[in-house]
Batch of 3 targets.
Target 1
Amino acid sequence: MRVSWKALALTFSLLMLQPAIIPPSHGQTETGYVSVHNSFYVHTPGMFYDYVWCISVLSLDDNNHVTIYQLPEGKIVGEADLSFKQVFRYNGSETDPKYFKITSTKPVSVYLHGGQINAPASWHMGWGQGSTFYSAVDGKLVGKRFIFTPMPNNRTYISGLLDLSAPVVFAVEDSQIKLYGPYGIIDEWFMFAGTSRQLSQIPAHDVYTLESTGKVLIGTFNGDSLTVVPSTSGELLGREFITRPAIQSLPENANITMGGIIVFAYEDCQVSIFSLSERTLLKSLTLANGEYSFISDLPFYEISPQEYAPRDIYVTSTGTISVWAASARGAIMLGNLGDDVTFLAGSGTLRFYAPSYAIIFSPEKMTFELDGSSVEIEKDGYMRTTGGYHEVQTSKPLIVQVVALHHVMGQGSGPNSFCSVALSVDTATPEAPGKEGGFDFTLIGIAAAVAIVVVIVFVKKRRKRGKV
């Protein structure tokens, strides 16, 4: 007899005297986040040694012109005309951090990744490791149709299992799924809600299409990483989440690397964490609105003596929360998360922990509150926060990129490797930096000059009339 993951949650809720039926949320939620758009902002941390960063832009339509501007100057540093499913890659290896705006004439998805240069030279990309979720074509991180190119992660194997860094499909609903590659259909299968499947042996440089009859998520996970996890509704805030706590460590290495999750509370809530792999309750905690917790002891589970498998988890809450998947190296603490980057975006209340720092991008001129202090940023502007916990209050949507630079057991100042799908907001527009609301400042100057000439001519005519 099959037991669904929702039935499992109900059973444990009753056993623990928790509310089993989740009422509609009345807490603060974000609005306007999109993962498919025509305007994105990204920050590339300073690299070191033989490491490179790469911005990959995947076109979701034909006749798509992509332009990459460096901020704050607005200088064009890369552009290309793309066809459907074509990828444009722009990369660098500078030791100083940089900031970019990516625009397109038609929808795209944007990937930011970096690592060692041991991939084929023609790719011109970093080959590293990190965790992220891929975008559905409708612009959310949960959906029924995905067009994506897998992140170029290092390959991670344990106990003879499949490549753990390959993309993982999580079924939110019972789903019949088809996976297409460059030359046609690759595989077709059925998934029950609450189960997962690893997509092994799909090269990182190809583009794939996944079609499902039910809602699914697609994520990729590796060690020393962190990523924002979408709720099962597709929003960044919610009450139900399915994920994997990054790549966890084997028991003999538990003191070196440990996978876990971070939970941020947006309402007073009771949070329960279930193992979908073992159908058991792992943790239960109570959080007040504004509190957060790092649950780090979520290692692999042993399926037989000396044979291990990754643990998929289901997180449910009686109030609105956000969830991140992460892994720490060295001392198991928030400051040791990464190396990696991740994004969150929207309006209202945005809560996050930056192991190193975060960059806040403003797609329009705006004033918002950061940790209770008022901040004003111009259109296409950005600011850097300190490390640690932060809270943003904003009536206009903005984008936050969280950066974790930890590497080599906490020593060093640059990132080892990272990967993330970039997020944006509906209010981000594809004008070149320095053009407000679609108006070119040079045109405004010309119009002003013409107006001055008209006034001078009018005054001269009036003077002539006065002399008659």
Target 2
Amino acid sequence: MGVRSDRPTEPGIPWRQLGKGSLLLWGALTLSSCGSPETVPPQPSPEPFVGRWSEPQVVGDAGPGFVGSRLSGGGGSVTGLLLDDTGRGVVLFSNIGDPADPLLVPIRTFANTYAAASGWSTPVRLSPSFQAFPDALAGDGHGNAIVVWDTNPGGELDANRFAAQGGWQPATLIAKLPQSTNAAHAQVVEGPDGAALAAWTDTALRVARMSPAGVWGASTAIGPPAFFFDLAGTPSDPLMGFVNDNRLLFLAPDGKGGWQPAAEVPGTGSIRVDAPGGLAATADNVGGFMLAWFRSDVVGNTAGIAAARYAAATGWSAPVSIEAGTPDPGERALKLVAGPAGHILAYWLHGDGHLWANLYTPRSGWGSAGPVSSAMPLAQSGLPPGTSAAAGAAAAIDGSGNALVLWAEAGVRLVSARATPGGPWSVAQALPSAPGTRGIVGPLALAMNTSGSAIAAWAQPSMCDSCPAPREVWAASYEPH
């Protein structure tokens, strides 16, 4: 949604949470900036932070980006991250070089693998092309993974598989792309049997399936070109949705390899979808799907955040409000992340510069929304007053419903907080600083397995005299005990 963080542009807030889920969304996007400030509800006293972060280490080179007087901008950024219950993980990132010609920017797709027992491996370049954008990463839960990337413009969409016992396999063509287009925001999901489903948009919204043997079938056009969409879940159980004329619609499989006619999600009202992050969706990993969106009144003003759950047996639940008080006009970047047992965290950036969140539990539903990042007031963080406390954020949930959130204070200091189901957010805990770095932290990625172990990854400039400085990809691991 919005500008892709791996494109050669200024770094921004990641538009989607990287992990499981199963909803595909697209639509025309509009921005509303009207409304009243949101009232902060009373918050319980924070608990101590539980767990420990490791010292960060370099796991890849994101490149210098555009330096000198030619263009402004940074190097590459982290595009995907996963960690499964085998203790294996993968980070996907771009490397953006310093071009001799600013119209020919070298952009390359890289990945590095992680094992809890041995740590990070050596980065591997997946794309031989001069310009190749890393789009998405997914895993089967057994230590295997798949990456999709596209060449631009008028190139192709490709995939690389990673086998836990055999390493990276050669790139496989998914589809040729129409001339002067690229596979915008291509996404991929992988099932436990190794099958995969990819979705992308060029002149149309398209999907293609890969068999467990690694053979890609022909692509199928399923809708009009999509400026924004999100794909998650499993290849055998997808659900698709899109926004049209301020209506939230969905598509479900017909059981014969196609899709049922589009239908409106009941009771959604008018939708405010802005860039980045006015609409979010995820599979809940217990047989259902959750949508959350910014509501809009009849004149386009912000009217709060709503959510609804879908299950095949019962259909859609009635939409409910998941924030408290008067909606804030500056809230943005709404995201959802689900744990393996059906817990879901909604989180977004508030107009006051803080990170807000609300946790859904399968038995009790949504809790009370409130600020996460206020657990570490700016006056105690060593940052200037008025500095944004949540320049970017990522979150994950373990098998017990414990949520871990990571954000960048003022874009430079990484901080995390943890919450148990029904409990308050902990005191925020700053991560150890990456040595020899300075400047803005790139988009953040966070991945967690069922036991609560997690890894985080981000790109950050190194300490040097050039501006912007070359970027390196950093990672740190978290253990809950």
Target 3
Amino acid sequence: MKYSRGFIPTLKEDPREAEIASHSLTLRAGLLRKIASGIYAFLPAGTRVLRKIEQIIREEMDRAGAVEIFMPVMQPSDLWKKSGRWDEYGPELFRLKDRNERDFCLGPTHEELITNLAYHDIRSYKDLPLNLYQIQVKFRDEIRPRYGLLRAREFIMKDAYSFCEDEKGLDEIYKKMHIAYSRIVERMDLKFRAVDADTGLIGGKSSHEFLVIASEGEETLVYCPDCDYAANIEMAGFKMAEEPVDAPYNNSGIEEISTPGTADIESLAEFLNISRKKIIKTVLLSDDENNAYSFLIRADRQLNLSKAEKFVGKKLEFFKSSDDDARFTMGYVGPVGLSGVSGIYGDNSIKHMKDFVTGANKIDTHLKNVNMDRDFKVDDFGDFSYPLETDGCIKCGGKLQIEKGIEIGHIFKLGKKYSEKMNAMFLDRDGKQKPFVMGCYGIGVTRIMSAVIEQLHDEKGIIWPPSIAPYLVNLIVTTSKDSFMKDSADKLYDELNEAEIEVLYDDRNISAGIKFKDSDLLGIPLRLVIGKKYLDTNMIEVQFRKGSKKIEMAPEDIVSFIEDFKTKNIKK
């Protein structure tokens, strides 16, 4: 492709709306353009990247034994009502009516529709196991679209759905899909982790997220470098770092102290000149019926709402004070004399604490020299907190590490959640009707594009891995005014095309500096430069985008060099 015909409108400055590097670079490099909030058009270079990502996904799905289909975006409400998710999914579900006032939605996912297909067309165990996938546009009415493609309202996703006779069959396909997803990410040269994760609105008994390591990622992952343990921080277990247990330093009992303006832990620790490890904070949660629950946690740690919900067995949220409900002195709540709660639960971090500070349930007041059992009772203890990097791995005891990541894929063991609700049955080996045992496997095509850029970029622009770069080679002639240089570049361009090497030939009549800046911005792996040095040496300068290494090469060696580069750098 000649640059002059390529429609690659690059931008010099960071767009005002861009919050992270990948959002800025997709716009600046001319990969896409914003149409509305959370809605983007893909330009030629972006479309080429997109198609390459899709091709890698297709190859790995086919390798895993999945079969491609294509389902409609519009889905009738009846299917979603049957599964119970029409109301459960909430305002993120795009809803619309046809001219006959029938309700439809624009699919954010396709569990209901695929289960309905299975209900009609899969009859017997002889048809199983079956794994069907599609690459399709999805829609979610995000409350706050942001980060470009990472939180868009319209996006492209590969979703697959497996149907099996039993849990053993599901386990086998799940393992194959885990391997396939790992291969997909590895073929793009990305650092990633597959972690234990919450099943969320999709449901099922277990799941794994595939997280690309990125400093601006929305997810937090916990892993052990000494073994294979890894989990989303919401699900992470850990061995709490042991703290020295001191004998009580004061036997005179509780002391009430004035602590004006210390409604948060940071200001309280500073006011008293003590470590946060000597403070127990009382976190209040409430359920749908406005029942309150008290969770006690050492003040250097944070309460994990998901763990608290699983312990109580209810959907909870952080308690919000109002004029109509003045049960608690917010900012100064403590367990001593606390009333109006359905339970007082202690995180394992407080088990061995002595002579600590808590709120006094009184404005601008705290208590010190507080001790459990003597001064208040804990109904039960448990793991209600997030891990810290000082904590140990639950598998091997090694020191945990915590990093940010971007979720690009999620696989689920759905079990019978949808098949039972939607009466999707098959005839088993004993001639009995049984519900399918299902799995669900999603990977974000457009999210991958942003995740790659977020991990692989520098101050100059994108650094595409060769497997998904819009072009493998950027051919630059520094000036088109010199006929010999231009003719040499034209000849090399023809040779590269004949060898079926993807090349972007910058034939524009602009300065070499702008060509180089656009080349860095666009992130093409190899740059071939025909400049003034070529006139003296007849050697072409080869520049690597990753690492910025430069070498010189005779024109007749270029094609074989690039073919060797492809063999070594593009995994199949």
